[in-house]
Specification:
binds calcium ion
Length: 266
């Protein structure tokens, strides 16, 4: 008996541990899977500047607005959807790395990555109207009709008063899988916030009241390998046209911009 416990006891403990681990993993997966998962159907394909390191995307008044990143190459652009042609642009200073944009009223706000500074422009003329500072990194931004909502690469979303730029609320984004970090480009769509998860082909849908995850969108395979021979294109850019319920997505260095429809995949 002594011999038995010496040999088999560790094995039994290990086996019990494995069973427990599998049980908890299964629990975690099942709790994650309670939210709907969507795939996509391509409605239209449009050209997109493959040199654009897309950091922000918005659709308003029949045209796209795009923010691009990298020092020295950061711009705010107005882009014709059908042709991808840049209709108007404004360059950021060499010290700034452009990030997300959002339109509110007749203004556009553009974030920068690590400078803690945002710029506010007139939407029509791109005239610089104001600047403001924030105490975190700038990644994505959207507008819910009341506040600007910002991401900073963590699992936190920040709500800012668009007049005073004060942070009025913070939420932590979490689901059955725990907190979801690396929230990037954002879009407010029908009362929910959609966020690109940096370096993945996934978009997470978030309840902005609670931070609770209400769904996932899997855009794997949207950009074909032949359109991304260097394998450097990362999904980042969500724009929504509320009038016509049209959804547009693209990515950094993607030569294409897609109008898609979300379809339940489970
Ligand atoms: Ca957006």
């Amino acid at each position: 008996m002594k011999h038995f416990s010496k040999i088999w006891l560790p094995v039994l403990i290990a086996a019990a541990g494995a069973v427990l681990l599998a049980f908890f993993l299964d629990l975690r997966i099942r709790s994650t899977a309670r939210v709907p998962v969507y795939g996509y159907k391509i409605i239209n394909t449009y050209p997109h500047d493959r040199n654009a390191f897309t950091q922000g995307l918005v659709f308003e008044g029949g045209v796209l607005y795009e923010s691009t990143g990298h020092q020295g190459r950061s711009e705010l652009r107005q882009v014709e959807l059908e042709t991808g042609q840049v209709l108007q642009f404004s360059k950021l200073g060499l010290e700034y790395f452009g990030e997300g944009i959002a339109i509110y009223g007749d203004k556009i706000v553009q974030l920068t990555w690590k400078a803690g500074k945002a710029f506010v422009y007139d939407r029509q003329s791109f005239k610089l109207l104001a600047e403001f500072n924030y105490p975190m990194e700038g990644w994505g931004v959207t507008y819910d009709g009341e506040n600007l909502i910002m991401s900073d690469g963590t699992a936190t979303l920040y709500f800012l008063n668009p007049h005073t730029f004060e942070i009025v609320k913070r939420i932590k984004v979490r689901g059955g899988e725990g907190a979801v970090e690396k929230l990037n480009e954002l879009e407010h769509i029908q009362g929910q916030v959609y966020a690109n998860v940096w370096e993945t082909s996934h978009i997470v849908r978030i309840d902005p009241q609670t931070g609770k995850i209400t769904g996932w969108v899997d855009l794997t395979g949207l950009l074909k390998p032949e359109d991304d021979p260097l394998g450097i294109g990362v999904l980042n850019g969500i724009a929504y046209n509320a009038e016509n319920d049209r959804l547009f997505v693209t990515g950094k260095f993607w030569p294409k911009l897609f109008e898609i429809e979300l379809v339940p995949s489970e």
